[in-house]
Design a protein that fits this description.
By secondary structure, the protein is an alpha+beta fold. The protein has four helices and four strands; from the N terminus they run βαβαααββ. The chain has one domain: GTP Cyclohydrolase I, domain 2 (2-Layer Sandwich), CATH 3.30.1130. Helix 3 runs antiparallel to helix 4.
Length: 136
């Protein structure tokens, strides 16, 4: 489901997508989850105006999604949160802090295989730079 940022209209914002980022990390409340790394799957949509980068063809005018992805990986690998809700909120903040051109982020974080009989369990959140998430 696509979201429209309350900050700007659909005509002025583009979506940068990071799909199926799979990182091993410590996440969970069960004793084995506190010891054993598990797969954490991240999908993110970053809303930003990419027209300047398209016009200039200059990386300095672009949201550097490689740098953002490296920051997400490092945070997952180094952190040890108890809750999925905490980790996904932290990762969204990393995205928003990485570049002022990012006006909103929607992110899904999943723990594949965490539930018996289910392929995955996860949460999706939507946050804006202004903090007005009422349209999410």
């Amino acid at each position: 489901m696509s979201r429209q940022s309350p900050v700007a209209s659909r005509q002025t914002l583009d979506r940068i997508q990071i799909k199926d980022l799979l990182v091993s990390g410590i996440l969970g409340i069960n004793p084995d989850e506190r010891i054993n790394r598990q797969d954490i799957l991240v999908n993110a949509t970053l809303w930003a105006d990419t027209r300047a980068a398209a016009a200039s063809d200059d990386i300095d005018d672009a949201v550097n999604y490689r740098t953002i992805t490296k920051q997400l990986i490092a945070h997952i690998e180094q952190g040890e949160p108890m809750l999925v809700e905490r980790l996904v909120a932290e990762l969204v903040e990393i995205c928003l802090d990485a570049d002022p051109r990012i006006t909103a982020v929607e992110m899904t974080l999943e723990k594949p295989g965490a539930l018996r009989h289910a392929r995955s369990v996860g949460i999706t959140i939507y946050r804006t730079r202004t903090g007005d998430d009422s349209n999410a």
